[in-house]
Design brief:
Layout lengths: L3 E4 L5 H15 L13 E2 L4 H10 L12 H4 L3 H5 L1 E2 L15 E5 L10 E6 L2 E4 L8 E2 L16 E10 L2 E9 L3 E4 L9 E3 L2 E2 L11 E8 L8 E8 L3 E10 L4 E11 L6 E8 L1 E3 L14 E2 L3 E5 L5 E5 L7 E8 L3 E5 L20 E7 L4 E8 L10 E7 L7 E12 L11 E8 L9 E7 L14 E6 L3 E10 L4 E9 L5 E9 L8 E7 L2
Parallel strand pairs: 5-13, 21-34
Antiparallel strand pairs: 1-27, 2-6, 3-7, 4-8, 5-6, 8-9, 9-10, 10-11, 11-17, 12-17, 13-14, 14-15, 15-16, 16-27, 17-26, 18-19, 20-21, 20-23, 22-25, 23-24, 24-27, 25-26, 28-29, 29-32, 30-33, 31-32, 33-34
Helix pairs in contact: 1-2
């Protein structure tokens, strides 16, 4: 399946029935006890797309699912104290490779989502019950007994050990979801859709309203999840095929039905946290050398160029666009896996997953967009990356797109290249003005290649403004690779785009390092 646009087809009789039922539900929110979307009944491949199509033909109505008073103002500790015991996990008694845990509403997760299980082409609504949860000594009030829905769900799977069901994924909050590879810890997140990110008019946050989860066969190691998305600008249908493992893969199929023109939409978005690294520690007062869930954006564009962009915690919001046609892949990566470089024995940033996006089919012209937002606390996700099509997605159209998400150590493609492993910068020397900076970039060796002083690569270093000087290429014995250093003098410039290309002169390849320098 490829990314494409279609005009809307004539509405069939089944769609008319869906529209009538949907309009009646929206006109009388809260008047009916049964779910609006994830109802009992027949379920097929067209069920969620038809619901999304019908939803898009009606004006957007914000969900009206107020929280009971007991859950309305929970603290973080109180919310954490509401737990789903192993005995209440879905499929716990069926011997499948997967189990599910539903998640309660409260704290930051106030909106309700509906959940249904699908068996043999029939969906069955999962109703909230208070006995699905237990509370400890912090959450002292009794839980509500009425059906108030859930905030999401966890996926459990023996991802690390054969008989232990560890958490392998979670869908919770707006259209956010997380996953990881074996022996990793949660870090960055993906989203179903981004819209108007970092735009002056404010960002729109589409949200998943309902999920349909297919019960896996006894021997299946793949879980299929369907989701209905809604927002003021667009409704959509999603299908996820999730396969946990050393790297967890998710094959995603998307159908969007825009209510309004989507001129600033973001496909396959991911969001991460970057506070600081050796790439500029000015004014950092922290015992830890590095704090981040991701340290760079990798783009493999349609021309086969591998571009590495180190992340930054900027002084003001900055947006970068990498123009492309039919990208091969992009993603926010965590390359530094050395715990000594983080010195954080609780957060274990060295175990955070990378997220690689592989487009399926022809994505056409557009840009990989990177947004970096100033942040003073590591609890905030301040990095966003996604694909933005060049042409707006028209209102009242149908847009389809497919891609694969890989949660793990990064893409296999390009591991035969000299890869950027670290970026450092600081004052050029004590005699130079403080705005004159020295950059040091460390590369791994290209796999399977010998490297000696006689065969060191040449570095072509350029800047869109200012002056580059003192370029030096040397061996890096710590990585058995290479180090490129240079001095950058911005002169009078306030912004400059820097670039480093390695020329090995023997057919070996290296990543292209790019960086945006701004006045501190």
């Amino acid at each position: 399946m490829t990314c494409n646009r279609q005009t809307r087809l004539p509405v069939v009789l089944a769609s008319r029935v869906l529209i009538s039922a949907l309009v009646a539900t929206l006109a009388h929110p809260g008047a009916r006890a049964e779910p609006s979307y994830a109802k009992d009944g027949a379920f097929g491949s067209d069920t969620v797309p038809e619901l999304a199509r019908a939803l898009s033909r009606s004006p957007f109505v914000p969900p009206k699912t107020p929280l009971p008073a007991v859950l309305a103002n929970l603290t973080y500790d109180q919310y954490r104290d509401i737990r789903s015991p192993p005995s209440s996990a879905i499929w716990a008694q069926k011997g499948t490779f997967f189990r599910l845990q539903v998640l309660p509403r409260g704290f930051l997760f106030t909106d309700a989502v509906e959940i249904a299980l699908v068996v043999g082409g029939v969906a069955q609504h999962v109703a909230y019950r208070s006995d699905l949860f237990t509370t400890g000594t912090v959450m002292k009030s009794p839980l509500p007994t009425e059906d108030i829905g859930f905030s999401g769900f966890r996926i459990l799977y023996p991802i690390n050990r054969p008989v232990v069901f560890d958490e392998a994924g979670v869908f919770q909050g707006a259209s956010y979801f997380r996953s990881l590879g074996a022996h990793q810890a949660y870090g960055l997140a993906a989203r179903g859709l981004a819209n108007k990110t970092a735009e002056p008019e404010g960002e729109e946050f589409p949200a998943f309203r309902a999920f349909w989860i297919e019960e896996p066969l006894h021997t299946s190691q793949t879980l299929v999840v369907h989701a209905l998305l809604d927002s003021p600008g667009v409704a959509g249908a999603y299908r996820f095929r999730i396969h946990p493992g050393h790297s967890t893969t998710m094959d995603v199929e998307v159908v969007l039905f825009p209510r309004t023109e989507l001129a600033k939409v973001g496909l396959a978005p991911s969001t991460s946290m970057f506070m600081f690294s050796p790439n500029g520690r000015l004014a950092i007062d922290d015992f830890r050398p590095e704090v981040h869930d991701s340290d760079g954006l990798l783009v493999i564009n349609g021309r086969g160029e591998h571009i590495w962009r180190p992340l930054e915690n900027p002084g003001q919001v900055q947006v970068s666009a990498f123009l492309d046609k039919n990208p091969r892949g992009f993603g926010l990566l965590q390359r530094n896996r050395n715990s000594a470089d983080y010195q954080d024995f609780e957060a274990h940033y060295e175990r955070r997953p990378s997220l690689w996006i592989e487009p399926v089919g022809d994505w056409g012209e557009g840009s990989v967009m990177l947004t970096e937002i100033p942040s003073e606390a590591e609890i905030h996700d301040n990095i966003v990356a996604f694909w933005r099509p060049k042409a707006p997605v028209a209102a009242n159209s149908e847009f389809r797109c497919s891609y694969r998400l890989v949660w793990g150590d990064g893409p296999k493609d390009g591991q035969d290249r000299a890869r950027v492993m670290a970026t450092r910068r600081g004052r050029a020397d004590v005699r130079a003005p403080t705005h004159v900076r020295r950059f040091v970039i460390d590369y791994s060796a290209a796999v399977g290649s010998a490297h000696t002083r006689a065969k060191l690569p040449q570095a072509a270093v350029s800047a869109s403004a200012g002056e580059i000087r003192d370029v030096v290429v040397s061996e890096n014995p710590l990585l058995e690779g290479y180090r490129v250093s240079f001095v950058f003098d911005p002169k009078q410039a306030e912004v400059a785009e820097l670039r480093v290309d390695l020329d090995f002169r023997d057919g070996r390849l290296g990543e292209t390092w790019v960086y945006r320098w701004t006045t501190p």
